C-alpha cells in the first residue's frame, strides 16, 4: 500500500468517525422496534466516509469551518445509506459491507420502509437555517434535491437496461449512467456543496463539478473492477455480483464488442435470463472471457485516462484556492480511486 | 473494440459530463456565478475569493438578522389579527369543591385586535377522571354565556360547575371551548375533594 493511499484512508477514517457519531446522534430518537435498528444498521457497519469527507474537506479548503458543513455531510451520508438499502433490494444483493443486506435480514417490506425513512431523515439537517442562514441553506437544499433527481434517473436507466436487456451500448452510455447514478451524489455534490458552504456561494461551481465527474467515474470503474477481481471478503459485496446481476459495466460493454458473433449471442442470452437462472459456471465464464478479451485491461486503462483528466480538472477547479492540507487530501483522492482495494 | 482508450473516448466522456452538468445546474436553480476573476493571476484570485467569502458571510449575517426581525414582527401581527391562533395557557384553570357543592372561577378573554368582537359563546366539555368517572357538561354554566369585547379590552365570564352529589373524589379534566376560537382550548381541572 502506498503512503498516499494510507494517508487518504486515515483521513477518510477520521471523517467517517465524525459523521458516524453525528448520524448516530440524529437517529437516536428512533425507538420503533421495526424501524430503529433497521435505519441504524448500514450506518453502523461503517462506510469509507468518502462523500462526507470530500464535502467537509472542500468546505474547509474554501475557508469554511467543519461545523457549517456537518449538516449537508450528514444528509449525504444518510441519503447514501437509503440508496444502498433500496439498491440492494433492487439488485437482489445478499451482502453489504461484509454482512447480509437489510432485506435478507428483515425481509423486503421492512427494509424498503427503512430506506424510505432514512431518505426522509436525510432531509432534516437541511431544514436548519441557524448555521448557514436562510439564503445559503436554501441553495444547499436545491443542490441536494437536484442531485437526488439525477441519481434516481441514473438508477432508473440501469434498471431499465437490465429489464429490457439493452446491449447496444457504448462507453459514452456507460458514462452517462455512472455520471447520473454515482458521480452526482458521490463526488459532484460533495464538491459543489462543500464549495458552496465554504465560500458562502461566492465561487463558480462548474469547474468543481467537472473535476467531480472525472473523479467519480474513475471511482466507479474501479468499483466495477473490484467486483470482478477481489474476493467478496475484501469488498464486502457478493463475489462477481455485478456479472450475476447483469450490470452494464465498462468491462461488459467492451466484452460485447470484442467477442465473435456466436459468443456474443450466448452473452446476450445469458444477460436476458432471470438472475436466479444464471449459473455459477456461466458467471465464471463471463469473468474469464473478460480477462481473455482484454476487457479488464480496457477498464483499467479507461480509469487511468479518467484519472489523468481528473488531475487536469483538479488544477482548474482549485486554481484560486489557497494550498492547505484539505486541498492536498482532495488531490490525493485521485490516485486513491485507482489504488483502493475495498 | 480495442483494449486501449483513445482520445475520442475521453472527449465523449467530457461531452457526457457537460450535458449532465447542464441538467444538474438547471434543476438546482443555482445560477452559475460569473467567472469574473478567472483571468487574474492565482494569487489575486485567492485574495478575491477570500474577500468575496468574508463579504458574503457578513451579508448573510445581516440578512438573517433582518429575516428574524421580520418573522417576529409577522408572528406578532398574525397573533393580533387572529387571536384564536395564539397558544392557550399551559396551566389549566383550577376549580375545587366537594360533591353537592358549586365550584366556580372566572374565564378571562382578551381582545388583542383593533376591532370589536361580538357574540363569543363559551361552553364546557364533559369533565373526565382517570378512573373513568365523568361529570357531564350539563352541570357547567357560564355567566354571561355570550360575551362582547371592545377593541383591546378584556372581560370575564364566570364558570360554575355544580358538582353532582354522587361524584367520586378525584381530579376531573375538561376544556372550555368557543366556536369563535376554534384553534384554542382552555384546559380546566376540577378537584372534587373527599
Please outline what is shown here.
The complex is a heterodimer of chains A (342) and B (194). Chain A has 342 residues and is mainly α.
Please describe what this structure looks like.
- The complex is a heterodimer of chains A (342) and B (194).
- Chain A contains 16 helices and 2 strands.
- Chain A has 342 residues and is mainly alpha-helical.
- Chain A has a two-stranded antiparallel sheet with strand order 1-2.
- In chain A, helix 3 (50-61) packs across helix 8, helix 4 (66-90) runs antiparallel to helix 6 and helix 4 (66-90) packs parallel to helix 7 (133-163).
- The longest helix of chain A has 31 residues, at 133-163.
- The model of chain A has no long low-confidence stretch (mean pLDDT 91).
- Chain B is α+β, with helices and mostly antiparallel strands.
- Chain B contains 2 helices and 11 strands; from the N terminus they run H-H-E-E-E-E-E-E-E-E-E-E-E.
- In chain B, the strands form 3 sheets. In chain B, strands 1, 4, 5, 6, 10 and 11 form a 6-stranded mixed sheet that branches.
- In chain B, strand 10 and strand 11 form a beta hairpin.
- Chain B is elongated and about 95 Å long.
- The mean pLDDT of chain B is 78.
- Chains A and B meet through helix 7, helix 8, helix 9, helix 12 and helix 15 of A and helix 1 and helix 2 of B.
- Chain B: Residues 24-43 are annotated as: Disordered.
